[in-house]
């Protein structure tokens, strides 16, 4: 596209949005726009962090809620009901990850982020106000199932929306530290949601007392309304990343060519995420129930305290993964993390009857297993899913990978109780060890290592690949920006 054409297109777009003062004389407006463009990536990264805290909180909200509901409704809150309510968030998340992943790429990052925030707020409001007709417990749990499912659509959508925006903004402003920064604003805050949810529960329980458990769980659900609202304004004001503005494909996306080029990476990110979530989600959701079962009096407060210890032990793994991802490499760090499932899963599983008699020791080893999960696949999966694909299809491929992961979480959550009942509780840990072996193999053979690679480089290779395969179309956030032929011309000059 020549300079005159580009100038005319720019003027046309500015006329449409009434930016004439910016083009023709308002230096202050130009400076303001330039400053917004400089600061926007940092705000985007920060907003991703605050947004994903609410995801982590919602993911872990049922950990203590399951214990409370079991005490309030011992007959009605059966294993099937518990699994259904817990799984509703996961099913919603699968839908949200796929749909919002497409929205990210076809409509825009900003639209996707605003949509997910709204869905989480509405879902959290409904869950807090959940009730059954005439006080029916069955009605309450069906209401919660729907509300948690709606929340899950927003929570799931946050994964591709926040993560793609954060990775592109980090690539733009801090390329060398893109990996550690991405981890700290994604997996760290997601993992922090576990201890946060338990800490909130303990505070509310101490204030209300065990005689008012109905109030306790509703207040804890209500806190989930406030967390996403903290970033809503910033998301309305944010600008889209430069990578997306220059590389978006909004029509005629060549999905067949995408699969031909990235099938190997898709097997890697989808397969590893399925295995990780198959282990980590049921262990997170039902860890409170596991701990409660080995505490002789089943005291709720003591269960929550050990649950908080478990979450605290699991958290340092995130920092270790962030430190290792550059010098050790994404793929090697992920295999090291999966090896933790193998080691600690076997230790706990094979010695379950003895180790559960020493509750603090059991919680420490359980926490170390989860800490290795955070260090490896927990840290790396989001990072490699954001790095392995080019900008035009980053949200879509990230969303599919995360959705397959959530499918693993749903399967794991569904299978968790039957495994405990028919094989014994120790087998939940032995199966985690088996998943660790499978995760190491999938990572080694299918995960590409993009450590230190500029995301713009993969964009250029992808555009060249499309051109070589005869695809013609328009690229850029505004479709009048350029075509593949223009990109070829730019590369040749």
What's the SSE blueprint?
Blueprint: H1 3-16, H2 20-23, H3 27-72, H4 79-106, H5 109-128, H6 137-173, H7 178-185, H8 187-208, H9 213-229, H10 232-237, H11 242-247, H12 255-285, H13 287-294, H14 300-314, H15 316-324, H16 330-350, H17 352-355, H18 359-387, H19 394-422, H20 426-446, H21 455-468, E1 474-475, E2 482-483, H22 484-492
Antiparallel strand pairs: 1-2
Helix pairs in contact: 3-6, 3-8, 3-9, 3-13, 4-5, 4-6, 4-19, 5-6, 5-9, 6-7, 6-18, 6-19, 7-8, 7-15, 8-9, 8-14, 12-18, 12-19, 12-20, 13-14, 14-18, 15-18, 16-18, 16-20, 18-19, 21-22
GO cellular component, one term: plasma membrane
Subcellular location: Membrane
Main location: membrane
Largest sheet: 2 strands, antiparallel
Oligomer: single chain
Distance between the termini: 12 Å
Number of helices: 22
Measured by DSSP, the beta-strand proportion falls in: under 5%
- The average pLDDT is 83
The secondary structure category is mainly alpha
Radius of gyration: 24 Å
**Number of DSSP strand runs:** 2
Shape: globular
Percent of residues in helices: over 70%
Poorly predicted runs of 5 or more residues: 1-26
Largest sheet, order of strands side by side? 1-2
- What's the order of the H and E elements? HHHHHHHHHHHHHHHHHHHHHEEH
Features:
single chain, 493 residues, mainly alpha, globular, disordered N terminus
Overall description:
- The protein has 22 helices and two strands.
- The chain has about 500 residues and is mainly alpha-helical.
- The protein has a two-stranded antiparallel sheet.
- A hairpin with a 6-residue loop joins strand 1 and strand 2.
- The two termini are about 10 Å apart.
- The N terminus is likely disordered.
- Keywords: Membrane, Transmembrane, Transmembrane helix, Transport.
- GO terms for molecular function: carboxylic acid transmembrane transporter activity.
